[in-house]
Amino acid sequence: MKKISVIIPVYKVEKYVAATVESVLAQTYKNFELLIIDDGSPDKSIEICQQFTDNRIKIIRQENRGVAAARNTGIRHAQGEYLAFLDADDLWTPEKLAKHVEHLDNSPTVGVSFCRSAFIDELGEPLGIYQITKLKEITPLDLLCRTPIGNGSVPVIRRETLGDIAFQDNLYGSVENFYFDDDRQLHPSEDVECWLRIAIKTKWLIDGIPEALTLYRVNSQGFSAQLVKKLNSWERMLEKAHAYVHPKSMAEWENIAMAYQLRHLARRAVTLEAGSTAVQFAHRALSIYWRILLEEPRRTLITLAAAYFLWLMPKPLYRQIQSLALKITGASQKRRILQEESLKNPPSLQLS
Predict the structure, then answer these.
(1) According to the 3-state scheme, what is the secondary structure of the chain?
(2) How far apart are CA 39 and CA 13, in angstroms?
(3) Sign of the torsion angle spanned by Cα atoms 264, 266, 270, 273
(4) Calpha distance 104→215 (Å, rounded)
(5) Which residues touch 333 (CB under 8 Å, ≥6 apart)?
(6) In terms of Cα–Cα distance, which of 289, 283, 332 is closest to 304?
(7) CA–CA separation, 99 vs 105, rounded Å?
(8) pLDDT for residue 350
(9) Residue 343: what pLDDT?
(10) Of 196, 191, 203, 105, nearest in space to 161 by CA
């Protein structure tokens, strides 16, 4: 039974971290260590973590350096053959680790196993919608445009895969191995930058399973600054990609990747009810790469329509339409997940 190292960076999450840790301890797969990385958290987050007495938990402290640095610290201390990452405000379903272990054990060419996510609100209540992503034959352009690994709480990775992208640097007084890029300007796009390096520089495949095993918390605080920060970090990520992506490929991909990211940010702005911001992002996406309308017409037109409805309609009317649309979308997404799960695990044939 392979050991898994679960790595949780912790910084200012006292409202959520207890539930996050509990979701790890409730896993049906029991052979894991839980590395809680105290990234210089100034609140009571670590005091809360210290109340758990499970001997699989280890708390490792460092000065505040950001989520990428905390993950790197966790990787350096990890003893598991597989490494799983969980943000301290998200949750896992109980069968999360077991499903990924099965996937990786049965797929020796897969280096990164990921799943889909169900969205929850700040109180942990389900929103009824899901992160539906492509699962198979993931390409570098998929990572740049459709972000199939939808957030930092979904992947489980072979140790060898991270070893193949390790690089050495002296950022904090001694030479260390790095896996995620510690550049603070890269946050919150350090995840995609790491997956892109794996896809470009290693032999390992990135492959998903259909179940929604991660519960991703939607937090509306400070959304305007966060959207701008995400855009700036995306530009920084594309700048760094020039170092290892072939120049011809980068020339083809850069505008496409920026347009798809702007459309994503427009959808995020709609979720956060920032109508004018959503319209601006959607217009910029089309001005940079108008073919996004041809490549994904349904998603692009829905994004445009939602942005304009939010911008122009009275809020009460918009919220009624939004509520109905979310119910229809959530039901459709749930059916798709169940269908794909049944294809992955067909019922046994009964002999008469």
Answers:
(1) CCCEEEEEEECCCCCCHHHHHHHHHCCCCCCEEEEEEEECCCCCHHHHHHCCCCCCEEEEEECCCCHHHHHHHHHHHCCCCEEEECCCCCEECCCHHHHHHHHHHCCCCEEEEEEEEEEECCCCCEEEEEECCCCCCCCHHHHHHCCCCCCCCCCEEEHHHHHHHCEEECCCCCCEEECCCCCHHHCCCHHHHHHHHHHHHCCCEEEEEEEEEEEEECCCCCHHHHHHHHHHHHHHHHHHHCCCCCHHHHHHHHHHHHHHHHHHHHHHHHHCCCHHHHHHHHHHHHHHCCCHHHHCHHHHHHHHHHHHHHHHCCHHHHHHHHHHHHHHHHHHHHHHHHHHHHHHCCCCCCCC
(2) 11
(3) positive
(4) 21
(5) 129, 130, 132
(6) 283
(7) 10
(8) 44
(9) 81
(10) 203
CB contact at 8 A, 289 and 258: yes
Amino acid at 96: K
Q: For residue 234, what are the contacts with CB-CB under 8 A and spacing of at least 6?
A: 189, 257, 258, 261
- How far apart CA 332 and CA 335 sit, in angstroms, is 5
Cα–Cα distance, 216 to 87 (Å, whole number): 9
Going 328 to 334 to 335 to 340, the CA torsion angle's sign is positive
Average pLDDT of adjacent 10-residue blocks, the chain of 352 residues: 97 96 98 98 97 97 96 98 97 98 98 96 90 93 93 97 96 94 94 97 97 89 72 96 94 96 93 90 97 95 93 86 83 87 66 38
Query: Is the separation of the CB atoms in 143 and 199 below 8 Å?
Result: yes
Per-residue pLDDT at 352: 34
Instruction: Give pLDDT, residue 315.
Output: 83
Instruction: Say whether the peptide bond before residue 314 is cis (omega within 30 degrees of 0).
Output: no
Map out the domains of the chain as residue ranges: 222-337
pLDDT of res. 190: 95
For residue 90, the model assigns a pLDDT of 96
Q: What is the CA radius of gyration of the chain?
A: 20
